[in-house]
Amino acid sequence: LASDKELSDFLKSVEKRAFKRAVYAVRNDDAALDIVQDAMIKLAEKYADRPAAELPLIFQRILSNATMDWFRREKVRNSVMQNMSDFEGSDEDGDFDLLESLHTLEDTLGTESAADAVSRAQILQRIDTEVAALPLRQREAFLLRYWEEFDVAETAAVMGCSEGSVKTHCSRAVHALSKALRAKGVTL
Amino acid sequence: MNHTIHLHPVTPPAGRPVGADALQARLGSRLAGGLTAMTATLPHDLSERLRVAREQAVARARQIRLARPAAAANVSLAGPSTVGGMGGAAVLRGGPGRVGTGGGDGLDSWSQWAGSFLPLLVLLAGLVLISQWSVREQVLVAAEIDSLLLADDLPPAAYADPGFGEYLRTSPPSLLAR
Fold this sequence. Notes:
By secondary structure, chain A is an all-alpha fold. Chain A is built from 8 helices and 1 strand, in the order ααααβαααα. The model of chain A is unreliable at 87-94 (pLDDT under 50). Chain B is mainly α.
């Protein structure tokens, strides 16, 4: 069983990422906070007796469901802010060089000086913006796989899709991000 | 002065992807590291609201955890099959100190049943009593009218006589009072 401290530590470790995930989805800080709070309470009420190791997967699933519930409520109010059918990304560019993007990004992020603080903030802001602009499923797959560090099977379990779909979404997301960021001079 | 952004490990979280997959995983991890750096600087009010939400969730979990043993203790105290082999607290919390199957649960379900249906039974009994009391009152009133009619000097047939009725309506009250 997860003790109070384990539960608290776990929530503390995921709360900011969970908030950002919700913000990416609903584009509203207050709504995102409500969603994260709902997910935390639900986890505490129904799954606090689970082993601490199981909490990350359960919490991400609850968070996804809470976000979907928010969209359903918004749909009822005829004010859906996100096009839920926009699951497919744009066509991929077969000639796009991922390795070049990686080198450029590592150079940009890894060797910044204090004089580049403004530039650094701009880079992070651009990454943030481009992640937010990803189609919903691609963004979910990308965040769960690379930010939450789930493996493909866990990501598929949280998203309720096949592992092949997760790989496709992740690939498209990374390519789209690389391309968009390079086009904006990161020099991604 | 160098400024390093804290990034997630470049190694992908699971598996050993090679080639394009490895590049994709590395780039994904780097981008996620950028997001982590971005998230680390959330505004103070948002961080505080997240902290409050977290504390509320932990308090709720603690509340539920404490409520469960109390509920188990109530069931054990109500059940007749609880024995004191393990000593006070252990017995009150149920588990190894409890023997027998279904004794406590049976009593508990009976009390739930009684709690649900007792008010209904009381209501039905009340309605039956009120009905019988009402019938008895009507019988008593009819008997009193009958006894008055039979004991009066005037024969009951007089009340069915239209002439006598007209006499009662037209005669002055002083004459009738005599």
